[in-house]
Amino acid sequence: MSSISIINSIKNNRMVKKRGLSFKNLLKNNILSLIIFIGILLIGVVIAGNVSVQNGKVSIDDDLTVYNNKLFVDVSEGRVGIGTSTPSELLNVYGTGGSGGASILINSTGGSPYTRGSLQIINSGGNVAGRGIGIFTFNNNETANATWFIGNPRDFSAPYSDAFIIGRKGGSSMDFSSSERGASSLMHLSSEGDLSIGTTGGGARLTLYKNTNGTILKLQDSDGLCNHNPESSSEIVSCSSDVSLKENIVNVNKKALWDKYNGLVVREYNIISSGDKAIGVIAQEVAQTNPELVTSEKVSIYEEVYSENYGSAVLEKTGENEILLVEQPNPWELVGLIQDLKAENEELKTELCLKDSSYSFC
Question: pTM to 2 decimals?
Answer without folding.
Answer: 0.59
